Structure formats: C-alpha cells, structure tokens
Amino acid sequence: MELRHLRYFVAVAEELSFTRAAERLHISQSPLSRRIQDLEGDIGALLFDRSGSRLELTPAGHEFLRQTVVVLDQVQRATESARLLAEGHAGTIRIGYMAAALYTDAALGLFKLFQQQFPKVRFSFMLMPHAQQFEALADGRLDLGLVYGGCIPSGTLAHVPLTSDPLEFMFPIGHPLLSSPRLELADMREEPFVMPFQAHMPGLFEQLTAAWAARNFRPRVVMDSDSFATTAMLVSAGVGIAFAGRQAGQRFSGRVGVRAADDFEFTWGADMVWLPTHESPILKRLLAYASVNE
Fold it and tell me: Where is the HTH lysR-type domain (predicted)?
C-alpha cells in the first residue's frame, strides 16, 4: 500500500466516479481501477459497491475514507514541518543567557523581529552563568549563548558582537547623587555597593576591578546578588547602589535612577556564542538574520 493509492481512493470516494477521479488525478481510468482493486485486496474488504447504476461507498469504505483523510492530513503536516525545519523556518533554538545581555535593545529586538518573520520558530531561554553556557554549548544542550562582558574562551567557540554598552551606576530613586551636578568615582567611595553576579562573570570583574584600581577606587561591597533583576530590586529598596550597562539599567527605569560617572568610562558588550559544528538550519538562519540586521 502506497500513499498515492490512498490519494487515489480519496479522489474516487469524493467523486463517486472512476472517470471523474481519473481526470482529476490526470491518469487513465484503467490503472486507477486496478489500484483501487489492489487496495481492496490489501485491506481484505470492498470499499465500493459497484452493483448499482451509481458507484457507492460501502460501510467499510466510509470508515476507511474517514481515517484516510486524517492520515493524509497528518502526512501533509509532517512533510511541511520537516521542510520548514530543514530550511530553517521552524524549530526550537535553545539559548543560554546572562540577564544583562538579554536586557539590551539589540538582543530583544533581534529575537522579536526574527520571531515575527518566522512565527514557527520557538526560543527556549535558560538563565546560565558564562561557564555553564560554554559547557552546555560544547555538549549540545544549548544552541546559542548570550554572554556579557567578553571573556570568551579561545578554541572551538565562535562569537559575534551583539551590542556594546557603557557602564553606568544605579541609585535608589531620590538618592542625592542622582541630582548632583557632577558624579565622580570618589563620590561613591563610601556608598554601600550591591555587587551583581560576580562569580558568574569573573573575567569581566577582573577587567573592571583593574580599571577602578587605576583610578584609586574600590567599591565598598555590602551584598552580592545572583541576578541583575535582584540587584535592581535591592537598589530600589535602598540597600545600596550598583553598576549596570546603560541599556540594562534603563529596563528598570522608574524603580531606580541611572547615571554615568563623569570621570570614568568603561564599555562592555554582549556577544552571541555558538559551536560551529553544532549549527542547525534554524540557528544558521538566525545568525544570518542578525548579520544583515545589525
């Protein structure tokens, strides 16, 4: 039994005429009749009553038609799904991320626009420190990583910059330093700091600490936080101040105030990271889309 035989049967059942069904299928009537007879032989039941002046479905034929239509529809859906998946128009992209990287306009805009253009694509986001992302990419548990602040290990991983972001400082709403005419690092020397995800991005903190040390500045850390959202919540509650990328800090506008230091510049960025040997069609399409729309 072949799929085309099922399609032949449906055509005859809908037309209730071998002649009209043959015309619809663009084949001769004689081979069509033989295929239906072969199908009835395979099933072991007559599907059509040929005894009268008009072709009719038997009870077995009615039941076979009902289920055959479902089968052919499922085959069509499966064929379309496989084609879309192979062409990179459908599927799931598993993405590990650090919140500060996802909170950027470039990342949010990329995923929003890509999903609008390819609505059958599904993103699965998993919050992960950098080291865990690199491990998950290597063993195939992730398709893409979003890392913040560089420090990508050399070797098998490929990466492209997603955005760059100047470092700024977050304050509770109403904090005096938000409205001061000028903000310098020395003004924050005695301020309590909430330090976000230090253990998750050790390379970034080494760079930042070195840059602060060059300006004779060392933050007075009173609390560590495991996520950027938690950091913003603690700052908004008045526990302390913190640093953040400008775009990430602006995501919490209204809950915290954000401003840059006038005597300190430090820019970090978000990167997309992946393993070239594990590129799926849908990941290739996303990377190509990102390069065109950067």
Answer: 1-58
